[in-house]
Amino acid sequence: MPVTQFAVEEKYEYLEGFGCYHSSEAVKGANPVAINSPQKPPLGLNTERISGSSFTAPRAENQQTWLYRVVPSLDHADFGTHSVPNEQSVADKQLKLTPNAFLWQNFPVPADADFVSSQQLIAKNGDPTTKTGCAYLVFSATKDMAEHEAFFSSDGDYLIVPQAGTLDIQTELGRLLVRQNEFAVIPRGIRYRVTLPTGLARGLIVELYQGHFQLPELGPIGSSSLAGVRDFQVPKAYFDGKIENGVAVINHPDQEWTIVTKFAGTLFSCKQTHTPFDVVGWNGTYYPYKFDFARFCVLGSVLFDHPDPSIFTVLTAPSNRQAGTAVIDFAVIPPRWSVMEGTYWAPYFHRNCMSEFAFPVVGDQSPGNPLSQGRRFLPFGGLLNNPMVPHGMDPARHEEARERSTAPEKVDDGPFFLCLFETEATMALSEYALKASGKKVETVPKL
Ligand SMILES: [Fe+2]
């Protein structure tokens, strides 16, 4: 079955479909019929809209959602700067550029942190204030977010890839359980709280400052394969409240909440006296979602040579600078059959105008796992090759690839999913990432 056999059982139900107009109600009748902003919405609710695109964006790219909630989001005190123990999480002011390749054995992580406070910037291009580019972050959460705290990024959509553990994410639009071998996208502006049902959870994030993710075009592939539209799972409406005398109320009125946001690369927070999880019904095209890597219908060559790795693209955020290029292509190279005759099966030596960042999602992370011994990618490592940095196999692997049998073989060791973030722009490294590499190299500051 092309579905991961997860150790942690699914606990939520989902809507299905990527890029669809979805509608969900925690209480029947919460979404008004036909009219979006009735004078008096159902169940005593307030109408609120979240716009993920400009109003006049083309229909295929237009992302708007209507929320019907107990208390409007604007009911909060002013934001002030928000301190977390790991100051690197916001230290994107001293980025450095280098033409050298970077291989990380591991990214050091704090011992005591939640999903937000554990985040460390690895690399970045562009600027959230001009809605250009993206950033790569690592997270390693050892504890739940505070009981009455929620987070949202004002800067970008978060594509979250857990490499270990499970994230239970309560969003304004409902709940998502995101386990190793799945990934989730939380669009900018959507508030959420992350708890850890199985303890430590760590992984990588790409924060997309520009536009949103979409499915790649399929061209000659036809109308299906790669990531299927119906395999994206979208949360159903859920709220911390109940109906009393035909009116929706929250469970604990006057409870103080802290809302943390990342705004222009800096964390801010504010207080409010109501839960942000009070959306009783919603409908629209702007929502979080998740996907199980095992559902990816991988394609490949069946005679000779490799297709370009774009064949592994799960989601893309196209650039508006040049057709066919991307702010981010998110690709996964999953377990698959290799059958190419007389072909060098390993990646050939190459240089690329794009910047490539690769990292693994490894099933067995124990030190005794042969995958952890002598592989290029340790369970929590990563590899960055900026534009035109030459890369390929080392001499030993090159020789092995030249001599190996090319009888058909299932590549399924782990399982081992190799994930790729590929972007059109050069990625500048943070101080944290440079230090974590343990590599002494010449760098120049990013202007
Ligand atoms: Fe490459």
TrEMBL record:
GO terms for molecular function: homogentisate 1,2-dioxygenase activity; metal ion binding. Residues 295-436 form the Homogentisate 1,2-dioxygenase C-terminal domain. Its EC number is 1.13.11.5. Keywords: Dioxygenase, Iron, Metal-binding, Oxidoreductase. The active site is at H306. The keyword NADP does not apply. GO terms for biological process: L-phenylalanine catabolic process; tyrosine metabolic process. Pathway: Amino-acid degradation; L-phenylalanine degradation; acetoacetate and fumarate from L-phenylalanine: step 4/6. Homogentisate binds at H391. Residues 13-292 form the Homogentisate 1,2-dioxygenase N-terminal domain. This is homogentisate 1,2-dioxygenase. It comes from Eremomyces bilateralis CBS 781.70.
